[in-house]
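Appendix C reproduces, verbatim, an entry submitted by the partner laboratory led by Prof. M.T., so that reviewers can inspect both the input and the predicted structure.
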Amino acid sequence: MFLTITSTSERTEAPATDLGYLLHKHPDRAQKFGLPVGTAHVFYPRADATTCTAALLLEVDPIALVRGRGSRPAEGFSLAQYVNDRPYAASSMLAVALGKVFKTAISGRCDVRPDLPGAPLDLSLHVPALPCRGGTDVARRLFEPLGWSVSVTPVPLDPEFGWGDSPYVDLRLSGRKLVSDALSQLYVMLPVLDDAKHYWVTADEVDKLVRAGEGWLTEHPERALITERYLRHQRRLVDDASERFAGLEDEVSPDLVAEENELEDASVGSVSPDGSVVAPVLAGPEAPLWVQRVNALVESLEAAGAQSVADLGCGEGKLLRALLENPRYQRLLGVDVSHRALQTAVRRLRLEQQSDRVRERITLRQSSLVYADASLSGYDAAVLSEVIEHVDPSRLPVLAANVFGTARPGVVLVTTPNVEHNAHFGLEHGETRHTDHRFEWDREQFQAWAADVAVRYGYSVRFKGVGTEHPEAGPPTQLAVFTLEVSR
């Protein structure tokens, strides 16, 4: 398997050989790296001020690869695992080599020249033999939206006999790109074009895809195709990745941010010298709904006597800020599927400006609630505020099992919109409050779901309204307070 990465430059102050710094591989040396599938070699066919080409050659050991598969039967015929062209065409094996050999370059780090990772280079990437299910059109659909100029040529089965095209293409990409972006995109696209992987795909692959696709995959028009193929069409993993990317898509409008910044200091309460919470300046019907929701959650947590709280789906940290201001909460955890939301939470909480004692009380972590996570256990209370409506209904039982069954806190608070109140926000019938909401329940539906969860996992549940209540439509937000029954 073979890949070349070429940088060109006409500027003497930025020679093409800067590519060597970014790849962390010296142009004057040939290096090799042992991998589970064989040996990777890195060398530079050309390295001067105007043109620098780095080559990655993966020498696959087909015998070792087959032996590593255990008792899996051969496909096609008795020697199919040993006699085939797969070790010579770029695939997930080359992607693994790319990720291992150029790991630091993909992360965008260069300690020797910290200015280089943020500077785009004139790059050309060449993969001479690449499996491409769907032909040249698929390759263009995947790379052109990323700003690459794409040259893709089918590889004939035999140029002399005219037997037609093979399943492989010769791929050339050119463009002015960051090296980290170029390598990340190729790392993802190699197995996507092949539509196969040489290893078993697990939940870890979702994390790899989200990390490698940060900054470019969320907005890609073929994101669904990329996700399906990268995760080998495993529906559970594809659904999880879709939810993760949906979280990354969420944007906070500038007007709302401005409004919240004006109100947040006065709206979420403060702490008096004796440690008690001072009532918020803005409370009641004149406060924005999100403020009333935070106040209702804080009130319920105080009534429950909670001292450790896991905010599951913490978003930008509105509730966490209110809790962090009160020293009674000695252990706080914020979990969200969106990396962008967690970055906003760090700024909102001003963690860099806080004392070590305050920072020790809180942990922020990216995770998905549709997978069991033992680290969510051991908290007095958990909060799911405006979270469940972002989850596909078919996956709610899994979320409930993870929160109420595995984490099993003493108190669980769940808020969700009341669809009956939507007309009073000027919404048409069937229109949801957020484009990512998979559903919105009326009071009867929410209470039926909550009652079923309570019985199933040994909790009692009671309901409250948040916001100004309409005589017929009820409150804009519904709140369920689950309390673990001691006998269970």
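The domain at 254-484 is CATH 3.40.50.150 (Rossmann fold). Additional entries are available on request from the coordinating office.
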